[in-house]
Amino acid sequence: MNILVTGGTVFVSRYVAEYFAKKGNQVFVLNRNTRSQPKGVTLIEGDRNCLADKLKGYHFDAVLDVTAYTGKDIENLINALDEINDYIFISSSAVYPETMPQPFKEETPCGANFVWGSYGLDKIEAEKYLEKHVPHAYILRPPYLYGPMQNIYREPFVFECAQKDRTFYIPKDGSMNLQFFHVEDLCRFIEIILEKKPQNHIFNVGNDEVVSINEWVRLCYETAGKELKIKNVDGSYPQRSYFSFHDYEYRLDVSRQKELMPDTKPLADGLKESYEWYCGHLDFVNKKPYLDYIDNEIK
């Protein structure tokens, strides 16, 4: 297949591009060429919001849109394409309001979420524009994505603490649950959609099981081969000043996904892959000043 991947230089879009290139597809990546490019792909250099005729003359069997955040992002891309065959948009679970019953189902009405703010609203706008103008497109709504090429300071933050033999500062009692999805499983599910063309066009995607903060941190330390020592932090300190996730627990119903792809990668296995990549790519991670806050502010 000829596949267009938007982005292609960091984490999800880079993993997606290399995954489908390794499968023998002709993969094109659309980005501004400000970073190193993934392996085995063809670069189309350009800004998705200023494309002019950059995509004219190309034929793509599938567009994998990983980097759209707003309706305008979608509009500008589809207007630049000569034709649209399969189109898969990686949206977000941020489209669900925190006030709705959980686990969130695909039929749950979308709306503002106090944690995600404009990010969630912009993703809703992007989904609506795509549904109106490309009704045969597919929309995927993942929870927290993880795995190799992870440049976000989530599991890399815990790995760093483990490598430095630091006591880990756990929010409250650590019982808050998190839901994850490995980037390889995301790619596997995209393959299934392209092959089977399911009747449903919106899918929550993710691991069926959730994991507590305590368990997630323990797995990260075990992956790094380190003993975990914890300190619980009371709610008087803002959680996002010293920890990778907001003080917000949610869960997606992934029943639709499981009908097509029953199995996902065990979290422990996925974290091992993430750790192996992290150890060789420390400079790729976008760090945040969590450790400074812990050392200087938490008593």
Descriptive labels:
single chain, 299 residues, alpha/beta, Rossmann fold, UDP-galactose 4-epimerase, domain 1, 2 domains, 7-stranded parallel beta sheet, two-stranded parallel sheet, 9 helices, 13 strands, 33% helix
List the helices and strands and how they pair.
Layout: E1 2-6, H1 11-22, E2 26-31, E3 42-45, E4 62-65, H2 71-80, E5 86-90, H3 118-133, E6 138-141, E7 144-146, H4 155-163, E8 168-171, E9 177-178, E10 180-182, H5 183-196, E11 202-204, E12 211-212, H6 213-223, E13 230-233, H7 255-260, H8 267-280, H9 290-297
Parallel strand pairs: 1-2, 1-4, 2-3, 4-5, 5-6, 6-11, 7-10, 8-13
Antiparallel strand pairs: 9-12
Per CATH, the architecture of the largest domain is 3-Layer(aba) Sandwich
Oligomer: single chain
* Helix/strand/pairing category: alpha/beta
Overall mean pLDDT stands at: 97
**CATH first level of the largest domain:** Alpha Beta
CATH topology category name of the largest domain: Rossmann fold
The shape, in one word, is globular
CATH superfamily of the largest domain: NAD(P)-binding Rossmann-like Domain
Low-confidence stretches: none
Identify the strand order in the major beta sheet. Answer: 3-2-1-4-5-6-11
